[in-house]
Amino acid sequence: MSSWTHGLIRSFPKLEFVILAIVANRDLRGKFVYELPENVVEVHELYLDDLDWCRRKRKSRMNKKEYQALRSLLLGRQVEWEALIDYFQKKKRSLNDLLMGEDFLNAVTEFYMLNYSQIVFTDFLWTMRSIYLPLFRTLQMKVPKADVYHCLCTGYAGILGCMGKHIHGGRLLVSEHGIYTREREEELIRSKWVKGIYKNIWIEQFRKMSKMAYDRAELVTSLYGRARELQVDLECPMEKTMVIPNGIQVEKFQDLLGKTDAEEEEIYVGAVFRVTPIKDVKTLIQAYGFAKEQEPRLKLWIMGPWDNDDSYAQECFDMVGIMDIPDVIFTGKVNVLEYYGKMDMMILTSISEGQPLTILESFAAHKPVIATDVGDCSGLILGNEGDQFGEAGIITHIMNIGEITQAILMLAKDKQMRLRMGENGYYRVSSLYRMESMLQAYGEVYKDFAASMQQPWPEEDVQPVKQQEETYIGEV
Question: Is the distance from CB of 39 to CB of 125 less than 8 angstroms?
């Protein structure tokens, strides 16, 4: 998402962008991964885990309209979002006083008695406070004025976009790379920190937030047809939806540095991602380890930073050591253009994806891909309806170590298959997933929004980025 956003901003140099970044806490303040383009005129940061900085005065109760809005949020009956926005924006409020106050207690008690009276109330009350604290903090944020609010997911980002539209006017565009509500649902179902019925309450809250964005957006884009269907299933009006596939600069991946004569004796498996649980790196390591036992020439390169989840990364490092798996290289943050040309195959073992840029990049580098059947991975590798380019790799089930092991061995033992699949992928990405097509589509969207607001549109507005200066180029 970050590399996609950075490329989009740089490709419209005559448009001014204001970045609204959502981060966990102030420890991450100003820690930008990329150098800010010249057309970024402001950066604002929302800290979801921030302290309550409001100076407390005499506690004030909600009026009838405000309390009804709060009640509608908890009960989920036609949430009165605009009334909630007005309440939090009217003046600086202490979230601690609100969450510990009588109004919130009364609303939670009603919700509890209607639905969950069989469980311990004190646990329920504190959980509700933890669920609504980041949302209330979001509703407190002062959103800058803009002509278009382009949200790259629903959730808290969608809330900010809706707030901007309500307060300042303008148009709301939502672009989902993955379906935010479904991703949060998958994470919550697998999580250990949320127990029992509280998973359902969290999931329902994310559904409310997504519906708010869908209802108020002028346009909601997705990356592929199935994602569009999921948006409609989540109550996004079909007439608002539009598919705009990802695109990359195919030319960037030509004439890459290949293997040396000595390296030709080995078979390189490449993985490009951040080392995080959603990428299921542990399954990759185990599958590679079993494949390595049968094919000693294999070597695994895991390319990408691991500072997003230090504890999980350490577990992955430890797994390599405990299982005594040789030839596993964690490169950290690197320029993947220096590595793609040397790889014999690429692999992605994620438990959730949208339309992964790393697969498109691998195709542009003429490399076959092994990927789990999530998001649009199957469509990219096997082709969607009407696609005659042929198989460009192998699809496996998620967390299936045996299938992934066999896929690695199948490609490792058949060079002609690797070459054929790599070429199939190259022709697919060259024909269907080019950066120019994606930028043209978003340029038309921005232009239409400008026309609807009677705003001027600059000529020669789209300039596809020719080269990234950043060290790490792959998908993050």
Answer: no
> What gap in Å lies between CA 16 and CA 19, rounded to an integer?
10
For residue 233, give the amino acid letter.
Answer: D
- Please name the fold of domain 2-243: Rossmann fold (3.40.50)
Q: What pLDDT sits at residue 462?
A: 62
Distances from the Cα of 372 to the Cα of 178, 191, 277, 399, angstroms:
15, 20, 14, 8
Exposed / middle / buried, residue 118 (Cβ in 10 Å: 0-12, 13-18, 19+): exposed
Total Cβ atoms within 10 A of residue 423: 16
Distance of CA 209 to the CA centre of its chain: 16
Angstrom distance (rounded) from CA 471 to CA 288: 27
- Dump pLDDT digits (tens) for 230-289: 999 999 999 999 999 999 999 999 999 999 999 999 999 999 999 999 999 999 999 999
Q: What is the pLDDT of residues 22-70, one digit of tens each?
A: 988 888 787 787 889 999 999 999 998 887 766 666 667 899 999 999 9
Query: Is the distance from CB of 47 to CB of 24 less than 8 angstroms?
Result: yes
Contacts of 308 (CB under 8 A, 6+ apart): 274, 275, 276
Is 372:396 a contact under the CB 8 Å cutoff?
yes
Q: Bridge-partner residues for 434, per DSSP? A: 248
Burial of 114: CB neighbours in 10 Å, binned 0-12, 13-18, 19+ = exposed
pLDDT score of 475 more than 60? no
| Mean of all residue pLDDT scores within the chain | 91
Provide the token pair at 265.
């004796």
Q: Are 378 and 354 in contact (CB under 8 A)?
A: no
pLDDT value at position 58? 61
The whole model's pTM is what? 0.86
Cβ distance 256 to 337 under 8 Å? yes
Q: What angle do CA 124, 82, 70 make, to 5 degrees?
A: 25
Gap between the Cα atoms of 16 and 12, Å rounded: 8
The beta strand positions in 304-451, using DSSP E, are 328-332, 345-348, 369-372, 393-396
Domain boundaries, the chain: 2-243, 250-432
Question: Same topology for domains 2-243 and 250-432, yes or no?
Answer: yes
Dihedral angle at the C-alpha atoms of 287, 292, 294, 297, nearest 10 degrees?
A: 140
Pick the closest to residue 325 from 294, 288, 283 (CA basis): 288
Does CATH place domain 250-432 in 3.40.50.1980? no
pLDDT digits (tens, 9 = 90+) for 386-417: 788 999 999 999 999 999 999 999 999 999 99
